[in-house]
């Protein structure tokens, strides 16, 4: 009986958040749809390729990916400080301390959303959040609120995928 209850609870828990694996081309197309053709500072084809690469490496194109990062805050002394828990959510691996609220950790919640919204199969809210983050940087540059945190996210993309170009997405071009 206990095994049945455990299995039932795990199945119900897994069904609460439905994610899916998306394709490289689906991510590329969704990001391209965000592009304002009148904005020369927007998503260039090369930047788009770098972001798609980041999505592949960070989440494996899994919309329900959650990565928990524990940062040991203890110093060289014998005093033990609590570990800082930091989680990254969804396709783009967005931070619970910056862009969304998980209800457990303090967050700036730039996108004014629950982190659970980033781990379902609906890409629209994820894309709106990424657009909001990018827009804040484009509009305000170094004066953008939380600039250092936002800059770190983009630096990770360039560190991982700096060599990617639009040619890497040629497989997605319709003949």
Please specify the SSE layout and strand pairing.
Elements lengths: L1 H15 L7 H11 L10 H15 L6 E6 L12 E6 L4 E2 L27 H18 L6 H15 L14
Antiparallel strand pairs: 1-2, 2-3
- Low-confidence parts: 1-16
Strand order of the largest sheet: 1-2-3
Helical content stands at 40-55%
According to DSSP, the number of beta strands is 3
The quaternary state of the protein chains shown equals: single chain
Residue-averaged pLDDT, rounded? 81
Cα-to-Cα separation, first versus last residue: 57 Å
- Secondary-structure element string: HHHEEEHH
Shape: globular
Description of the structure:
The chain is mainly alpha-helical. It has a single domain, classed as Lysozyme. Helix content is 42%, strand content 8%. It contains 5 helices and 3 strands, in the order αααβββαα. A 3-stranded antiparallel β-sheet has the order 1-2-3, with no helix packed on it. A hairpin with a 4-residue loop joins strand 2 and strand 3. Helix 2 crosses helix 3. It is globular, with a radius of gyration of 18 Å. It starts with a helix and ends in a 14-residue tail after the last helix. The N terminus is likely disordered.
In short:
By secondary structure, the protein is mainly alpha-helical. It contains 5 helices and 3 strands; from the N terminus they run H-H-H-E-E-E-H-H. It has a 3-stranded antiparallel beta sheet, with no helix packed on it.
């Amino acid at each position: 009986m206990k095994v049945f209850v455990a299995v039932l609870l795990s199945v119900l828990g897994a069904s609460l958040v439905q994610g899916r694996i998306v394709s490289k081309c689906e991510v590329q197309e969704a990001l391209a749809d965000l592009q304002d053709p009148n904005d020369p500072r927007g998503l260039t084809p090369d930047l788009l390729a770098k972001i798609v690469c980041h999505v592949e490496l960070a989440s494996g194109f899994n919309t329900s990916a959650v990565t928990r990062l524990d940062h040991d805050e203890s110093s060289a002394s014998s005093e033990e400080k609590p570990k800082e828990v930091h989680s990254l959510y969804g396709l783009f691996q967005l931070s619970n301390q910056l862009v969304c609220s998980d209800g457990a950790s303090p967050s700036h919640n730039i996108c004014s959303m629950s982190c659970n919204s980033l781990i379902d199969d609906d890409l629209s809210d994820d894309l709106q959040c990424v657009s909001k983050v990018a827009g804040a940087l484009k509009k305000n540059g170094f004066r953008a609120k939380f600039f250092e945190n936002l800059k770190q996210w983009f630096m990770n993309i360039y560190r991982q995928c700096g060599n990617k170009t639009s040619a890497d997405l040629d497989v997605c071009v319709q003949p």
